[in-house]
Amino acid sequence: MARPRLAGAELEARLRELPGWSLEGGKLHREFRFADFVEAMGFMLRAALVAERMNHHPEWSNVWNRVVVDLTTHDAGGVTASDVELARHLAGLAGDPRPVSGPS
Amino acid sequence: MARPRLAGAELEARLRELPGWSLEGGKLHREFRFADFVEAMGFMLRAALVAERMNHHPEWSNVWNRVVVDLTTHDAGGVTASDVELARHLAGLAGDPRPVSGPS
Amino acid sequence: MARPRLAGAELEARLRELPGWSLEGGKLHREFRFADFVEAMGFMLRAALVAERMNHHPEWSNVWNRVVVDLTTHDAGGVTASDVELARHLAGLAGDPRPVSGPS
Amino acid sequence: MARPRLAGAELEARLRELPGWSLEGGKLHREFRFADFVEAMGFMLRAALVAERMNHHPEWSNVWNRVVVDLTTHDAGGVTASDVELARHLAGLAGDPRPVSGPS
Fold it and tell me: Does A42 touch chain D (CB under 8 A)?
């Protein structure tokens, strides 16, 4: 069963913990740029492994070194804690520094 | 150096050899559907290996079991023989039967 | 916690349900051959997604179109139901026909 | 056609440029360790893309976070410049610092 949809102040608070991500069309959105196609694919495979483990999958596109990601939970009709968790994982895979505190 | 842009009767003839592909926005376009996310990723990663070998890369997106592909050659401003070749490879990877005759 | 180690008649019964697999050095063993390196990698990457989802990973090697797989459960000191389940998944990914009956 | 086999002082000079690699059984050998299975697979996919582009493929094995690589050129009966080139690429993908000077 999907987790409840995040909204209002709670969603805003979560977004502040996700530098680089924005809310577009009701989805968590981010564009990643890599050195080249090989690095972009390396990111996508590692992200796919995490997504399959979570059973929560991204909407995403790739053109050479760019990967654009949109995260939403269809069953909940919006952004949920699963999207926030996947967003945090993807940021880590792409090389963002881990936050000093807060949930891992 | 990019191969020349295909147009007119030549492009139409090539399209007839590529069942499932259409011309959308000046690009070779096709949507593939797979059994699940694992099979969709299996397709994308094999396609990535072929694309990297050809040094000719797709524009593509994925949502769970669907992969939408658009092929164009930016340096040529349209569809070239490289796009046709990549389209044929992708069809083969996705399980289309190989043509009985014609260029491999 | 690891599932219990299979042995004796129970292990033999499971092996009979896994055509192509043998017991070597106390591990479920099989060699897969594919058309080429691209197909071998496509198999490994799809298998990796399944393995990560199961949190149960293979010991495996690759040389061009060949992939050799050994499955064991270190915490149990031998072959467990998790290895049997992963073996069945890998066979399916490699194109073995699904069994008509029996556990999926 | 395969490049000529490297031997003697030439091979030793090349090995000195490849920290972490050794000669074992007439092959360039190295064990890589990563944070986890996801990172190991990310390395293998990126390495596979480079290998397919070079049309020069590794002999390698994986157990969870470890990837053991052996490089040789079968047609030449030993280590060639292609193996050295692939070894350098793999080191770069695994995060080794690039050499300040010398061939890229």
Answer: yes
Q: Is A54 on the interface with C (CB under 8 A)?
A: no
Q: Do residue D52 and residue C64 have CB atoms under 8 angstroms apart?
A: no
Tell which residue, C83, D84, D98, C54, has the closest CA to residue C91: C83
| Predicted TM-score (pTM) of this structure | 0.93
Number of CB atoms found within 10 A of residue B54's CB: 13
For the stretch B56-104, pLDDT in tens is: 999 999 999 999 999 999 999 999 999 999 999 999 999 987 655 444 4
If you measure CA to CA, which chain D residue comes closest to A39?
A: D46
Question: Residue D104 has what pLDDT?
Answer: 41
Give partners of C (≥3 CB pairs < 8 A): A, B, D
Is A52 close to C49, i.e. CB distance below 8 A? yes
Which of B18, B25, B2, B14 lies closest to B82 in space, CA to CA? Answer: B2
**C52 in contact with A at a CB cutoff of 8 Å?**
yes
Do C61 and C67 touch, CB atoms closer than 8 A?
yes
Give per-residue burial for C60-93: e unless 16+ CB within 10 Å, then b.
Answer: bbbbebebbbbbbbeebebbbbbbbbbbbbbbeb
> Within a 10 A sphere around the Cβ of C98, how many other Cβ atoms?
10
pLDDT band, residue C94 (cuts 50/70/90)? very high
Local confidence pLDDT in tens for the 104 residues of chain A = 678 999 999 999 999 999 999 999 999 999 999 999 999 999 999 999 999 999 999 999 999 999 999 999 999 999 999 999 999 999 999 998 765 554 44
Task: Report how far apart, in Å, the C-alpha atoms of D11 and of each of A35, B18, D7, D22, D92 are.
Answer: 31, 49, 5, 11, 20
Contact A55, B70 (CB under 8 A): no
Chain D residues whose beta carbon lies within 8 Å of the beta carbon of residue B52: 49-50, 52-53
Residue B68 has what pLDDT?
98
Q: Which residue of C50, C52, C54, C55 to mutate against A (max A Cβ within 10 Å)? A: C52
Q: Residues of B25-43 as b/e, b for ≥16 C-beta within 10 angstroms?
A: eebbbbebebeebbbbbbb
Closest CA to D85 of D67, D58, D61: D58
Q: Can you tell me the ipTM of this complex?
A: 0.91
